[in-house]
Amino acid sequence: MKPSEEKYIDKQPWLDKHEKPFLEIRGVTKKFGDFTAVDNVNLEIYKGELFCLLGGSGCGKSTLLRILAGFETPTEGNFLIDGVDMTELPPYERPVNMMFQSYAIFPHMSVEKNIAYGLKRDGLSKAEVKIRVEEGLELVQLSQFAKRKPHQLSGGQQQRVALARALVKYPKVLLLDEPLAALDKKLREKTQFELMDIQYKLGITFIVVTHDQEEAMTLSSRIAVMDQGKIRQIGTPTDIYEYPQSRFTANFIGSINIFEGVVKESRSESHVVQCEETRCDLIIDRDSSIHTGESIGVAIRPEKIHLSREEPDNKDFNTLKGKVLDFGYIGNLSVYNVKLDSGKTVKVSSPNQNRYSKHRVTWDDIVYLTWEPANTVVLL
Amino acid sequence: MKEHSVIPNDQPQAKGSKAPAEKPVANYSKLHNWFNSFENRAWKGMVIGIPYLWMLVFFSLPFVYVLKISLAESIIARPPFTSLITWVEGTRLSINLIFDNYLLLLEDDFYIIAYLNSLKIAFVSTLFCLIIGYIMAYGIARSKSSVRNILLLLVILPFWTSFLLRVYAWMGLLANHGIINNVLLAIGFIDKPLQMMYSDFAMYVVFVYTFLPFMILPLYSTLEKMDISLHEASADLGAKPVTTFLTVTLPLSMPGVIAGCMLVFIPAVGEFVIPTLVGGPGSMMIGRMLFDEFFANRDWPLASAVAVVLLIFLVVPFMLYKFYSAKQEERVS
Q1: Is the pTM for the entire model greater than 0.95?
Q2: Fold held by A8-95+171-251
Q3: Chain B contacts of A147, Cβ < 8 Å?
Q4: Which structural domain, as residue segments, surrounds residue B66?
Q5: d(CA A211, CA A57)
Q6: B-chain residues within 8 Å CB-CB of A337?
Q7: Which residues are CB-contacts of B198 (< 8 A; sequence separation ≥ 6)?
């Protein structure tokens, strides 16, 4: 198949003002009776992206995908692919293909015939269909299973048939609805990388719907976090995780500690935040959008906090004192719940770098939590 | 999640974690097991045995009896046929198999035409049932779940009255001064009544009406189970609705199509009431002939031969189908 010439992900086309979006979603709304499944979504996706729609169940991500595929008509709004309005086209005339969550492989056809199905509909010659089917089988490493019936395949193999069947059509956009949800954990991790590989090789724009944040973080060039039919934030995995713009995103992706406070003082390099929950002032980096007297949330990820039994002496860092309430050993890391004097519980995770240490922190230990002001996220 | 086993040999002793006492092994357990497995086998045997017993008592034995009669000769006596096995001169056992009835069936156009006519009428009725039934079953399967049960109930509803009554009702509808003609006359669509009764038209209408539920129900059950995402996938891959129907929906509903066609075709071939009551003079069917031979002519052996041939007509294609589909299944796996 056609290899892409450039690695689009490295290019970050969404930062380039001159780059034109490949897929444009303009004010798309979908209502089912009184229920608004998709609420005025605007989205610009660039060629060659692996874009994830991430959200909990019922957030509207699947409905949005089904609108793109043509199985639902939007109540309002439209969308364009490569500058052409697709909103009114029936599914069989759209240059997009979908990989279904249930795979939707035709049970009465062999693997080969399943993959050929879409090509035959395009009116390709027999010889051409044969070549493309072989290509597709090779791409997903199923060549020796060509004659098998779907029920003779494992879940992972079925998933690859579904992928090949959609890919051999060379769609402009490939839609994937929870592509890995039905696979077990190990296979899922392996398949994630295969999927990225294939996407990179072919340069086809992928839109993936998933509820699994780890999957979204690993796969995507950019993620749109959805909730109640709306897009809460769009950004690269790093953006979404390190710079969440709202309490929803901060809480939805990974875990986070939020301290509520009021900006007391603004210095040249930093702000001082008065905080009831910590019973001490917190220092955050200077941000021109923050003003004295404003109420803000100071948020910090558990792994950005350093935990120790000795009191640290670096006064530039934020330091809190607390008692270990509970902790969980996960293997690569341990997760601690530390209770502050105010009663607030702080989540901390620290890597287990040594197999065992005699001085490990345990229940009821008094510990100091420190973090660099630069690692804090300010939530309004 | 509590941390326990970070340090080897530092396994904390959980309180009260004595190993559960081993269950005492009872002496009677062997006997008990044997009895259990015997019981199991007996149950299995019974479950499998009942249908076989049913077939034996209600199909095989009557069939053998009919077969026996068909090989006898008609006489005026009670019962009205000769016995196959007779003692000659008290010492010689003589078995007389008389094939005259079968030869007659083969020679006389009258019977052959009736057979062919039956097959034709049953085939056409089945075809109409399939087309109409498929559309209805598809509609019901794709309807809202709240309406679906009501629609299914409506399909079954006619069974709540007698079949004969329903045929008479159709006669009332189709008659020269029946409801349909009266309405058409009243609105001025026609100026003299249409002759609908005692025609092929009337017969087909009533056939399709009678057998339609038998087509709809198996079709509905296969269509209802079908994964809607298969249709979407087909459309997504570029198939227009007609292509999707022909390449996905129809092949996947074949079990329902075959079951429905069997359920309609088999009873339709032997149907006797409908052609008698509403059919025209040209609609001599084998069921009618069977009835006449038994009750008008009292020629039981000939009637039995008619019945045996009819059965062969119906069972042989069915067996062939079963045989081939089983073979095909084998080839797949």
Answers
A1: no
A2: Rossmann fold (3.40.50)
A3: none
A4: 31-85
A5: 7
A6: none
A7: B278, B279, B280, B281
State the pLDDT at residue B25: 54
Residue in A92, A165, A326 closest to B235 by CB: A92
In chain B the first and final C-alpha atoms are separated, in Å, by: 47
- Interface residues on A facing B, Cβ-Cβ cutoff 8 A: 69-71, 90-93, 96-98, 100, 102, 104-108, 117-118, 121-122, 149, 152, 165-166, 169, 326-330, 334, 356, 360, 362
CATH classification at residue B127: 1.10.3720.10
Read off the pLDDT of each residue in A252-265 and give the average, rounded to a whole number: 92
> What pLDDT score does B333 carry?
54
B178 lies in a domain?
A: yes
Partner-chain contact B238 A121, CB within 8 Å: yes
Indicate if B140 and B261 belong to the same structural domain.
yes
CB atoms within 10 A of CB A210: 22
Cis ω before A150 (30° cut-off from 0): no
Work out the minimum CA distance from B250 to partner chain A, whole angstroms: 11
Sheet holding A333-340, edge to edge: A306-308, A366-371, A318-329, A333-340, A345-351
Give me the residue from A108, A169, A327 closest to B237, CB to CB. Answer: A169
pLDDT digits (tens, 9 = 90+) for A178-206: 999 888 888 888 889 989 989 988 889 99
Residue B177 lies in a domain: yes
Tokens of B282: 């040209």
Average pLDDT, chain A: 91
Q: pLDDT class for A18, splitting at 50, 70, 90?
A: confident
Dist. CA A222–CA A236, nearest whole Å: 4
Q: What is the CATH number of domain A255-379?
A: 2.40.50.100
- Which residues of chain B make contact with A122, given a CB cutoff of 8 A? 238
Q: Which of A69, A102, A118 sits opposite B227 (nearest CB)?
A: A102
Cβ contacts (< 8 Å) between A121 and chain B: which residues?
237-239, 243
A-chain CB neighbours of B4 within 8 Å are: 329
**Cα A81 from Cα A95, distance rounded (Å):** 9
The pLDDT, as a whole number, for residue A8 is: 47
Residue numbers in chain B where pLDDT is lower than 50: 1-21
Percent of all residues in chain A with a pLDDT value above 90, rounded to a whole number: 72
User: Searching chain B, which residue's CA lies closest to the CA of residue A166?
Assistant: B237
> Is the ipTM reported for this complex over the cut 0.90?
no
Q: What's the pLDDT tens digit per position in A290-313?
A: 889 999 999 999 999 999 988 888
